[in-house]
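Quick one, tokens below. Sequence please?
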């Protein structure tokens, strides 16, 4: 898989937000391989993965202007892909799906309230049961970075529970 050039993706995202269809088409081309691997890994079915991707990119395009940080396109797309795959798998509201983290149970809705990268790392580790090195390779960060996101994610979740 190709390594993602964050500066280039950020530039393409800005241009796509300005209405350049070629920029979004290029974002699609750059991110499709990883997004397909993610959808297929989640759904374990080629046809369902392709349908999920079609919906993922439609949602991404329609909500692109709401993306606050242009350098977060990959994370934004991954969260949409996850939610779309989840809809295909469960046909349930994410608030109804419980994820066990240590001795606590959290809804996927709570996990999605975390900062984007923390949310992705927590979902990958505790919902999809991925190993730290697998998450690190997929997100192109080092294993200690993944562990730090996991630690911060747990702290943020405890605060969320206290606020609720």
């Amino acid at each position: 898989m190709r390594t993602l050039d964050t500066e280039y993706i950020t530039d393409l995202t800005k241009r796509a937000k300005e209405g350049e269809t070629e920029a979004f088409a290029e974002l699609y081309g750059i991110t499709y391989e990883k997004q397909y691997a993610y959808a297929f890994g989640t759904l374990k079915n080629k046809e369902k993965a392709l349908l999920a991707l079609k919906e993922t990119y439609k949602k991404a395009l329609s909500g692109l202007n709401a993306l606050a940080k242009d350098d977060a396109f990959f994370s934004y797309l991954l969260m949409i892909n996850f939610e779309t795959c989840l809809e295909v798998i469960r046909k349930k509201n994410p608030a109804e799906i419980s994820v066990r983290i240590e001795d606590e149970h959290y809804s996927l809705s709570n996990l999605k309230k975390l900062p984007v990268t923390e949310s992705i790392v927590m979902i990958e580790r505790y919902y999809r049961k991925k190993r730290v090195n697998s998450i690190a390779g997929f997100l192109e960060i080092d294993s200690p970075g993944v562990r730090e996101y996991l630690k911060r994610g747990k702290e943020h979740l405890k605060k969320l529970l206290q606020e609720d």
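The radius of gyration is 16 Å. The domain at 94-164 is CATH 1.10.10.10 (Arc Repressor Mutant, subunit A).
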